[in-house]
Structure formats: structure tokens, C-alpha cells
Amino acid sequence: MIEMQDVWKQYPNGTWALNGISVRIGKGEFVYVVGPSGAGKSTFIKLMYREERPTKGHLFVNGFNIERLKDRKVPLLRRHIGVVFQDFKLLPNLTAAENVAFALEVIGTPKKYIRRRVKDALEWVGLADKADLRPAQLSGGEQQRIAVARAIVNNPQLIIADEPTGNLDPDTSWGIMKLFQRINDRGTTIVMATHNREIVNTLRKRVIAIEAGCIVRDEDKGMYGYDD
């Protein structure tokens, strides 16, 4: 699903965020990406959905060569990827259903399919009864569930999550993690950057630890391993 070969990333200010990373993530895996703040986790994540380009090295995601991918082809890559953010990134003036539908509209899904898919996605995350509410009328946990519904509405092969429980209380965080586990159980690959020690240490998955832009640990059923 994902292969990085000696990937380096330098930002315009001269900072090197990634320093020669090589890693492979197979279809159906559930992977935590951990490490101190500023270690390069978010850059690692952003490269996968072509928010950023590698400065050097080779990166393949679901068959796409990221460093050679033309801008006009990026939407095609993202049709097969769902992304969930820490701050939800819901459009405030749209209802829950409209936010989920938007993910289908931007990739040109015929309107006759959108309503059914949106209904199914909202039912799947347990919020069918909130379809007509706007984000401000929802709790943080409900907003993140809507974000998850938006991420899965097109049945992606890969879900990328950047600190998806970072703004949630512990009980709500566990509810969101149960959703991710169900998504993974269907065969979807999940790559999740997180600082949540309890979740990583309880729901034991593969752990990739990044420090100073380098992978320092890659282990199956790993532990969090940091004090922050």
C-alpha cells in the first residue's frame, strides 16, 4: 500500500523534516506513528496524500508514484484515501450530511449515488439522526465521527489519521478508536499519527517511531515508549 525509499523532506526555510526514511506498509495493516513533537510525524503523514512532496527519494502510495504525480492527478490519488484530522476540518456552514456529501462531490460522484452513500456512512458512525445539524450544534466527538464518515464515504483503501483523538476526552477517544478498528476489520489500511499513550499501549498494533526525521523503531504490537 505504501513504500518509502530513502525519502527526505526539506522545507523552504531550510529545515529537514525527514532524513532518509525507508518503510513499507502493507494492505490491511493498522500502523501507529509516534514520536516527540516536531519529530516529523505530520510531514510523514502529509506526504502520503500529497499535501507535501518529497525533496529526495521515492514514495509510492497505492500504486501512485508521489514525487512524479502531476497536480491534475492528485484528485485521482485521493479518491482512494480518506483523511481524518485532529481539528475535524468540517465546513461550518454545511450540515453533517452536506459535509460528508462534499467528499463525494469534489471527486465527481453522480448525484444519484451520493444520498445513499451519505446515509450509509452516517449510519455506520451512529449519527444518522444528526444529519441535518451543523458542526456548531455537535459535540467534539460527534464532529469527529462526522469527519470519519466523510473519510470512509467513498470506501477508501487507505485511511490516514493525524492525531484524530487529540482534541477529545478519553471516553470519546475510545469511541473513535472503536470506529477505526471496525474500519480496519473491513480490510482498510490505517496509518495514524498519535500522542495517545494509553490507546497505543492498549490496542497493540504496529508502531513506527520517528525522532529527528528518522525512523528509530518499527515493531509489531509495539508500545508508545515516550513520556509526553
Automatic annotation (TrEMBL):
UniProt keyword annotation of Magnesium present: no
Record keywords, A-Z: ATP-binding, Cell cycle, Cell division, Cell membrane, Membrane, Nucleotide-binding, Transport
InterPro entries documented for this protein: AAA+_ATPase (IPR003593), ABC_transporter-like_ATP-bd (IPR003439), ABC_transporter-like_CS (IPR017871), ABC_transpr_LolD-like (IPR015854), Cell_div_FtsE (IPR005286), P-loop_NTPase (IPR027417)
Single annotated GO MF: transmembrane transporter activity
Domain spans labelled ABC transporter: 2-226
Key word Metal-binding present: no
GO-annotated cellular components: plasma membrane
Highest taxon in the source lineage: Bacteria
Membrane topology note: Peripheral membrane protein
Localization annotation: Cell membrane
GO biological-process terms attached to the record: cell division
Role noted for this protein: Part of the ABC transporter FtsEX involved in cellular division.
Family: Belongs to the ABC transporter superfamily.
Quaternary structure annotation from Swiss-Prot or TrEMBL: Homodimer. Forms a membrane-associated complex with FtsX.
Protein name: Cell division ATP-binding protein FtsE
Lineage: Bacteria, Bacillati, Bacillota, Bacilli, Bacillales
